[in-house]
Amino acid sequence: MPETAYVYMMTNQPYGTLYVGVTSNLIKRGWEHRTGAVDGFTKEYDLKRLVWYEQHLSMIEAIAREKRIKRWHRDWKVNLVQAMNPEWEDLYEKIV
Question: Is the distance from CB of 62 to CB of 7 less than 8 angstroms?
């Protein structure tokens, strides 16, 4: 069975603070961010809105992509969100 991994971005509001993460279970990880179940950056800055994600066939591939995106300028990250989700909707409701 092929491995699935996701790179994703969370925010608190359109054009707000951005967090880039990686997970093998996007629904569970999204729930953890939304409920504040895990301490850290997203809980501290109230980043509960899933605004972008992409699926990868392996965790190694997803981690490499996450690391590249984390080095990007903020404008590039905003453009990535805009391309997939121009209204900055919370995509979590669409994946559950």
Answer: yes
